[in-house]
Amino acid sequence: MNTKSLSSQGHRLPATISFHRSLFHGLILLAVSLFPLFAHDGETNPSANSWDASRPDSHAPIHVMGDHTHNRGEWMVSYRFMRMDMDGNRAGTDSLTPEQVLQNFMVTPLDMTMDMHMLGAMYAPTDQLTLMLMAPFLDMDMAHRTRMGAQFTTSSSHIGDMSLTGLYKFFDDNRMRAHFNFGVSLPTGSIDHTDATPMAAVAQLPYPMQTGSGTYDVTPGITWLGQTDKLSWGVQLKNRIHLGENDRDYTRGDRLESFIWGALPLGQSTSVSLSLDYADWQDYDGADTALNPMMVPTARTDLRAGSRLDGGIGLNVKLPGGHRLALDFTLPVSQDLDGPQLETDLAATLGWQKSW
Ligand SMILES: [Cu+2]
After folding, report:
1. What is the pLDDT of residues 102-155, one digit of tens each?
2. Which Pfam families match (predicted)?
3. CB 130 within 8 A of CB 167
4. Which end of the chain is more exposed for a tag (fewer CB within 10 A), N or C?
């Protein structure tokens, strides 16, 4: 058992996470400053100077949100199905057996599946500003084992936190585009999910099984896109900051995410992509007094932080009539969790977009 991470205090990043964070964000800044060199071209065709939204590789891998803006008067609707599989616990970068977790807790989580159905709409009132509305619906199941050897599963299912984002384009030249992401997330998800457990017929579910943050959140970000004759690329940095405290007296930890991707067109309508995502998130402030932190690690506010680097591969197909279909998979390259916490093994996203 990793006693160092068990004893760490809330809302402070472990040293290894701060190091990874600095390293990865440094690499992203370096990449952003080098990209204009690749994007440089001496072509005489004036349209070659514009970023081309009609290319199949112009959209980011489908798990990246708010990656593009639209021209004035354009609409887009989208649906995404995302599945995330978590199996087994870890503390730091080490895997833990259920028996190791049960040395310190009455109950251990074994695995979790999260399904998300995400509806999206985009509309551009001007060439500079695109508005985006997103509504997630979450469906989660978590399997557990008790010290006595009993197994049980809890479930929650509800609309998540809806968000409204303004994407403001501030650069559009030399086959590159850049925009700011200004998002507000509303507490439409629930923080009051209960289910039956061996301890109680109606038990408040621990933090990861709640479908909302319970707070108003802001999600500032920046996105930079570019194209060459052969490929498209993009970089996005995004932060989720939780404002205030929710009705159950806690605040989720803030989350920093960065995405970097490249996409290669295969003909007129298909593209393939590779991506690298880095995220880190912090511990919670406050606590839900209905949860017993001695019972299960998912009820501990100081065992929530972590960081993860994911590699992704994606496919994107343009169809007639403004339709697009996309599929991508992301796999962790490394993850460092303030645990015991369930580790992520795989995420898959299938999406459909229609614009007019
Ligand atoms: Cu769009």
Report:
1. 999 999 999 999 999 999 999 999 999 999 999 999 999 999 999 999 999 999
2. Phenol_MetA_deg
3. yes
4. C
Q: How far is the CA of 68 from the centre of ligand 1 (A)?
A: 6
Query: Token pair of 282, please?
Result: 């912090």
Q: What is the CATH number of the domain that holds 199?
A: 2.40.160.40
> Which residues lie below 8 Å from residue 218, measured CB to CB, with a gap of 6+?
182, 183, 184, 185, 240, 241, 243
Left, alpha or beta for 234 (phi > 0: left; psi -120 to 50: alpha)? beta
Handedness of CA 89, 253, 347, 260 (dihedral sign): negative
Q: Find the mean pLDDT for residues 223-247.
A: 95
| Contact of 209 with 189, CB cutoff 8 Å | no
Q: Which residues surround ligand 1, an ion (CB under 5 A)?
A: 76, 122
Distance between Cα 353 and ligand 1 center (Å): 8
Give the range of the structural domain holding residue 299, as residue numbers without chain letter.
3-355
Kindly compute the dihedral angle of the four CA atoms of residues 296, 252, 68, 26, in this order, to the nearest 10 degrees. Answer: -90
Region of 244 on the Ramachandran plot (φ > 0 left; ψ -120 to 50 alpha; else beta): left
SS3 20: helix
Residue 328 CA to ligand 1 centre (angstroms): 17
Number of domains in the chain: 1
**Residue 8 DSSP symbol:** P
Q: Which two tokens stand for residue 322?
A: 């403004």
Q: Ligand 1 centroid vs 122 CA: distance in angstroms?
A: 6
In angstroms, rounded to a whole number, what is the distance separating the alpha carbons of residues 162 and 167? 16
Q: Encode pLDDT of 251-277 as tens digits.
A: 999 999 999 999 999 988 999 999 999
Decide if 336 contacts 244 (C-beta within 8 A). Answer: no
CA 253, CA 245: separation in Å to the nearest integer? 11
- Distance (angstroms) between ligand 1 centre and the Cα of 70 equals 6
How is residue 161 written in tokens?
Answer: 């936190």
CA distances from 115 to 30, 86, 211, 315 (A): 35, 12, 11, 20
For residue 66, the CA-to-ligand 1 centroid distance in Å is 8
Q: Please, are residues 180 and 167 in contact by the beta-carbon 8 Å criterion?
A: yes
